[in-house]
Please model this.
Amino acid sequence: MRSVFMRYPDGKAKAVTFSYDDGVPQDKRLAEIFTKYGMKGTFNFNCERMRAVNFTKEEIQEIFLSKGHEIAVHGAIHRANGNLRPIEGIRDVLECRLELEEKCGRIIRGMAYPDTGITLMGSFTTYEEVKKYLTELDIAYARTLGGDNDSFMLPQDFHAWMPTAHHGNSKLMEYIEKFLKLDITPAAYHASRVSRLLYIWGHSYEFDRANNWERIEEICERLCDNDEIWYATNMEICEYVNAYKSLIYSADGHRVYNPTLFEIWIDIDSKLYSVKSGETLIIPEN
Model:
């Protein structure tokens, strides 16, 4: 039986992403820091707060989109989905998505849960109900919170996407060092060779409150310019993983067809392959 592992673009085995909430003025400074260090950020806009800040279409394009960052849904009125009846949750997500798409001039399909999200389920709402209406609203992923850890694993469920840690976590720099030292080469223990993700989240206004903008500079400086890392937005990771999961294999595993629009990279028996869009890769027998 072959050993098969997903690899990120260009065959990389590690990825880094950031997710910051609310659409506040400090997001401009944070986006500029990400751009400076070659990071990719996802900025989750609470539409009510965004209106008060008055990010114009031109500012959104210049500060975020033109630099490769992502804008995602964070609710029209920033209410926890777990405490909303489904009809209220649908309205909150849909209104935010409609407003963001009009301001951004592009399709918006990512999300971070507002407030307590799905960590506290009130009003007798269930996660299954929330996931169902998010899927019907074409929300491809939704970030949750509350599980900081150093496993660096990709989510099994993109609608309950748990990040690695908040930027203020006292152990974050330890997590980063562990992530950078991970051995995912063919020489590593087999089960540990899965691709990994470091996912950091927070609110940019927290750097003002704590007077510690040097914190995010230190994080980015430690992670930047690393040939082993793919720097990506939340949506880029979600779409790539879903494309990988769409690959079609022959019964004997010697042929792989890529029906997606992405070029997909795979480690098969410690050899790196890429399968271009529409291509069928024939894998030599051992």
